[in-house]
Amino acid sequence: MTTRTRTLAALSLLSVAANLGAAPSVYPTGVTRYDTATAYNSYVIFSGQDKNTHLIDMNGNEVHRWNAEGFPPVLLDPALTGGKRGHVLVQLASTTGTSNEGNGLRNQAIGELDWNSQVIWQWGAAGGAQDAYAAPVEGKASSQVPGGSAKQHHDWRRLPNGNTLVLANLVHPVAGFAAPQVLDDVIYEVTPGGDIVWKWVASDHLNEFGFKPESLKLVKNGYSPRGKAAPFDYLHVNNMSVLGPNRWFDAGDQRFNPENILIDSREANFIVILDKQTGKVVWSLGPDYPAQVRGPRVLPRPVDQIVGQHDAHLIEPGLPGAGHILVFDNQGEAGYPRVSVGVQPRSRVLEIDPITKQIVWEYTGGDSNAPEWSFYSSFISSARRLPNGNTLIDEGMNGRIFQVTSKGDIAWEYVSPYFAPTPVAGAGKPVLSNWLYRAQPVPYNWVPEGTPRSEKAVTPPEPGKFRVATN
């Protein structure tokens, strides 16, 4: 047992129910519980508030670090890198002195690093594009990048053809909006050489998102909370995923073509699928939902009020629930008009059948025998299905990553120890936080052979069994 592992095991003795909904001023970090009988074993990758990207094992040991952050970092399947393991997508250059929270305006360049942090590919202000899998590209200067900088935010995906889908920001005036400029969302498909071969702009499809006339009027008349001079972030698309192979397309439903793209809007509470060929919306959920009914939750049931969701995607083939949509429903505050969770804020993870549009599985804090408000992150966060049926959840606001079984039992839990000053929720001044945007489970065989790992159980005390001496 390493010194770090012993330290984390000792810290776990301080865990009281291991829920951080309203965080105390002192609480344990690292792995606070690990049930080896029910947890699914993998590495986990995330970017911390120290602006580094960390790969940890099941005992919370950092097994690798890249001195760059990602929004989010994406560790690539070796099938997309010519068999090379341990390659990661991260940001390579950012503007100093400004906040990057909520958009990509500060993001100057993005790229792919190998296990040794060597730049394999890059796109942005750092000098165009480079590709290690092909002959050197000549003449690909930063003019290939709109505005000279990547402005990537919230997501990006490597495609089987070697291109990269980039979700980015575009600041421009849009006819019909009261705001002088909007902070629009744009998707680029970028070749290894840096050329943009496909582009989609959200405002071109404003009438396809399902807004009622009165809601659309609120959208167009809105302004940034930072003032009328600031660009209006009217949608705040925070997720972009490629559908990939799925049973719906196999059964003949063309809306679910594997090349189609799923996005969601935090500000407008909708999830939509874009046809890759036409750019049009071919499937949607929201922005309007029935109100939630408190009390016993009967499943399946129609999707009720989602608020400010993150990380919507189709569960991959071969995983339990394949073809369903998995989404972190933050239950913060969003919408046109605004809707809020109310007096007892709590988040949920939802598994949704996209054909019937019914919830077929969900997780709340109450499923772990704790108050529902014990599980809550009003922004950021993610959820990913694991091969054994567990779900890896990032409760991002509190820097907490954990696995739950299908019944809601917590099988593994980790609290990020990487605190740093952040302008988020600081009332105009930097405050210390360990918030983290997204967590990705990483199979052992996606990194170089011989990468260390530890799988030793960590058992927290029973709730109420630990007391701090007062004299």
Describe this structure in words.
This protein has a five-stranded antiparallel sheet. 5% of the residues lie in helices and 32% in strands. It has helices at residues 3-12, 213-220, 247-250, and strands at residues 30-34, 43-47, 53-56, 62-66, 74-75, 88-94, 107-113, 119-124, 130-131, 152-158, 164-172, 182-190, 196-201, 237-242, 261-265, 270-274, 281-285, 301-302, 310-314, 325-329, 333-334, 339-340, 348-353, 358-363, 382-385, 391-395, 400-404, 410-415, 420-422, 431-433, 440-442. With 471 residues, it is mainly beta. The longest helix is centred in the N-terminal third of the chain and has 10 residues, at 3-12.
Helix content: under 10%
* Strand order, largest beta sheet: 1-28-27-26-25
Largest sheet features: 5 strands, antiparallel
The count of helical stretches stands at 3
Nearest-integer average pLDDT: 90
Give me the count of strands: 31
Query: What proportion strand?
Result: 25-35%
Structural class: mainly beta
CA radius of gyration is 22 Å
Report the uncertain regions. 1-20, 130-143
User: What is the CA-CA span between the terminal residues?
Assistant: 34 Å
Q: What is the overall silhouette? A: globular
Provide a concise account of the structure shown.
It holds the Pfam family Arylsulfotrans. GO terms for molecular function: aryl sulfotransferase activity. The protein is built from 3 helices and 31 strands.
